[in-house]
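Record format v2
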Amino acid sequence: MQTILSSETGARSQNVLPEKRSITLTINGLVHKLELAPWTTLLDALREYLQLTGTKKGCDHGQCGACTVLVDGKRINSCLTLAVMKEGSEITTIEGLANENGLHPLQTAFIEHDAYQCGYCTPGQICSAIGMINEGHAKTLQDIRELMSGNICRCGAYSNIVDALQEVMKIDSNETV
Amino acid sequence: MTKYVGKPISRVDGVAKVTGKAKYAAEFKSPDLLYGWVISSDIAKGAITHIHTADALQVPGVVQVFTHENRPGLAWFDLSYKDQDAPPGSPFRPLHDAEVKYSGQPIALVVAETFELARYAASLIRVEYKVEEHATDLHANLSKARDPKLGVASLLKPPPPKPRGDFEKAFSEAPVQVSAKYVHSAEHHNPMEMFATTVVYEKKGKLTIYDKTQGAPNSQLYVSQVFGLPFKDVRVISSYVGGGFGSGLRPQYQLFLAVLAARQLKRSVRVSLTRQQMFTFGHRPATVQHISLGALNDGTLTAIRHDAIAETSQFEDYTEIVVNWSGMLYPAPNTKLSYKLVPLDVYTPLDMRAPGGVTGVPALECAIDELAHQAGIDPVELRLKNYTDRDMNSDLPYSSKELRECFRQGAERFGWSNRNPTPRSTRRGHTLIGWGMATGIWDATQGPARAEAVLTVNGKLRVSSATADIGTGTYTIMTQIAADTLGMPIEDVLFKLGDSDMPLAPIQGGSWTAATVGSAVKVACEDLGKKLFKMAQKMKNSPFANAKPDDIFFADAHIRLKNDPAIAVSLREIVGQNGGRAVSETSTSTPDFLEQRKYARSVHSAAFVEVEVDEDFGTVRVTRAVTAVAGGRILNPKTARSQILGGMVWGISKALEEESVLDHQFGRFMNHSLAEYHVPVNADIQDLDVIFVDESDTIVNPLGVKGLGEIGIIAMPAAIANAVFLATGKRVRELPITLDKLL
């Protein structure tokens, strides 16, 4: 038997808390003014301070893709991004995809192809798919599989996700595996 | 009449899921919300001698740090801590005392005004321990294996049957023999949504709890008993669950901690676990199995022995049905099955998708493949030779079993007749190709459940039951059943679930929700129909005045006469007679135990798989797979197919990727992140195909459904391992089949 100390020490106990600061985020076309501590991730800013909970937290470490949002049209992991870093950017979340004309084609295709089960990775999958299409590199089904591999779906809806994307992207399925 | 049942209806909760409107447990806000951060133990066994919390408490915005030293008095007896899925033993109690029973045990909760502050303050906490020696290695402790304790749970998970015949004699005399050891490590469920609870502290201390659970009533029961609260003061809501796979069958510790903090602080509290902490509660237990098969030269099985030893915790005896399947699938006259446990310093294992089934059946199905190879018989042929329509364990006939048809249709779709049976003799470029197949079996069970059906004043049907939808499609199939039973257009039917205020349903697990809750929804709608018919008869100039219940039917939101469907009364008109009130009925569905006990009831499958193995790197890829399922009536081919596809992905994962690795020096799972705990990504999944063979069953339940949540995973691991053997000539009997085992 022995006594051990946990690896954390009290060295950081002099509480130097980061000051909150005013930041302005443009999300889904709306301008939000927030008082946020700089250590707040974009993901937590969305979920906890703006109640935009469509963006999901699946690992908080950039390993699962559930938190994928679009920043200036590019897909990023919002858990690996501090909110203060995105002032002046156009942020699009799952809540911003449908408009007065109805659902985004990818949203419709996900429903039609049953490209989800529990639905928790779905917003990230859809935002990631939009980002992938914007990148313009996916030409075949195998490209889609590779380029969508940053988004884990534990329910295992991958083949239906690929079917949904194939329909929207109008990719020929005669391509060999 | 089935206008909707049997049709590929898109999920009724689809729009909510693709627009981000579906709200999960950590997504409810309250103006007074506090955030909790859990501190996990660094050691696997010992005692906390001191927790230094002063630094954390000094941080402005930190409200409290809860530990075993300041937690309030709670229920005394083990019974109060038992949930619906508790195995025999003494359930773990968070913050109970200074004792540490496993690595990652929650030992403190930091509560602060923001999530960021709680997380930061937690880093200031120091813990001193008195460390004791721990044991976490199953393989080093096999000599400690003992029989599991029996308890209520043993009813659902019966121990192995008594031996049949004389295994030793039959095996020693068998001209074809196979004996092998099969191993897999622990696995963690890792649903995408991390466990979280939001407790909203209402007036007079009532609690509205948004919890990640596979059974809202189970969480309600737990909170009510542990904290000594009446049911009416504890409402648990779980409308959407971001995956479960069994992890939500028991209340997890964030529920306890969030309720404790909310009650002490009289404020709303949210506690979310981290991905690392998703490895600090139940898991699929590591298991070691030995299988011996004896057969005649023509492949007829004469002897089966299947022994399994699994881990459990030091405080509960978690059990699974691992070996019983061997006595069910094959009618060998001489069988000997055993199942034992080794208690270790880990958390109690927990049902994980096809618990026991995807442990025992793959081992058996690999051994059967070894036997087929040794006897020089095609694996499908060998299975057909040893086919049985009786479960030899219980000596009862199957209520239905279209497994033969699964073999036939699966083989045909896959092109099995072109199989090259010689190992390491098929190539595609620098990859080795192999084909393999295996059988799957799982229980088709039904439990009791309740449901309420309400016809609103504007003629809409509202049905509810406190079940869950963990992604399985419960919302959708229940809506279909309700719409068909009362002849309503589906857009006028709303099914709700996941609220402890709703009529009681059991936890969602074991593939029994479609059968259990589906039957309750059907009965509730039928009973509501009877009530509406009686009301219709009492209407002025009722066309049904002399009609009997058998003379009418429900269609297009009307009651109609069978012999003259033009004579009809609309349901809306009937409810209009109720003085401006809705008409409702709450009903209970109970299985027909007397009839069901005369039969063995199982769902079956056959999986056919092609793998490519890179000869230089040993990497394995499943290039295509076909699973044929005999699952009784298919309520919704679209969601049913997804269930099987998901199961197949889990099968690929189990065979090739998934493994929780313990560092026995620390008694801790090392790869506790989604970067290091490998599950399939999109690129790992190629061509998957699903077949549902026709199967009619009037015994299993009034709907004839068998449940599909587990069956998709069970046959896959063995089919893959067998395909890898054919590709490479190597038998890998330790899952997952990683490249190091093939080089």
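The mean pLDDT of chain B is 97.
Residues 513-537 of chain B form the longest helix (25 residues).
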